[in-house]
From TrEMBL:
Top-level lineage group: Eukaryota
Record carries keyword Signal: yes
Keywords for the protein's UniProt record, in alphabetical order: Secreted, Signal
Domain C1q: 16-152
Keyword Metal-binding recorded: no
Localization: Secreted
Native organism: Lates calcarifer
Primary subcellular site in the record, as a coarse category: secreted
Designated name of the protein: C1q domain-containing protein
PANTHER family xrefs: CEREBELLIN 13-RELATED (PTHR22923:SF102), CEREBELLIN-RELATED (PTHR22923)
Residues that span the membrane, as ranges: none
Gene Ontology cellular component terms for the protein in this record: extracellular region
Listed Pfam families: C1q (PF00386)
SUPFAM superfamilies registered for this protein in UniProt: TNF-like (SSF49842)
Amino acid sequence: EDFKQNKTALNVLFYTEKTMVAFSTLAEYGGARGPFDGDTTLVYNTLIANVGDAYSASTGVFTAPVAGVYCFILSYHAGGDHNAKLMLIKNSELIVATSDHKSNEPSDNGGNAAVLELKKGDQVYVRMAAGTRVWADGYQHTSFSGFLVNQM
Ligand SMILES: [Ca+2]
């Protein structure tokens, strides 16, 4: 009887279907992206990976396919001679930001990350603040990644 129960438990462990969600993307526009007059969603238009297809490379928006704990990471090259500011947004709520002030040093980089508890359908994306820009030149500096840590 014990053997039967253990076998059932193993079957549950091995055969429960797991949702896999993981993406990595780059913004590649051949140079500076921005500045724009208003806050703008930064569309990371080049996919490195998009397991589960939850990130849209045409809108820049990640939509949670299942409820769970997710991790998001953003990194960017600022270019230095212009202000830069990126904001990680959950639905319409600001979660974390990263910014750089105009300076003579041309090699400024920044980033941030957050663990988020998402409901199915919650949307996560990166906004670029009005009047700022990031460098998106095809040298793989400006990236946005995310993955499902655990389904709930
Ligand atoms: Ca700077």
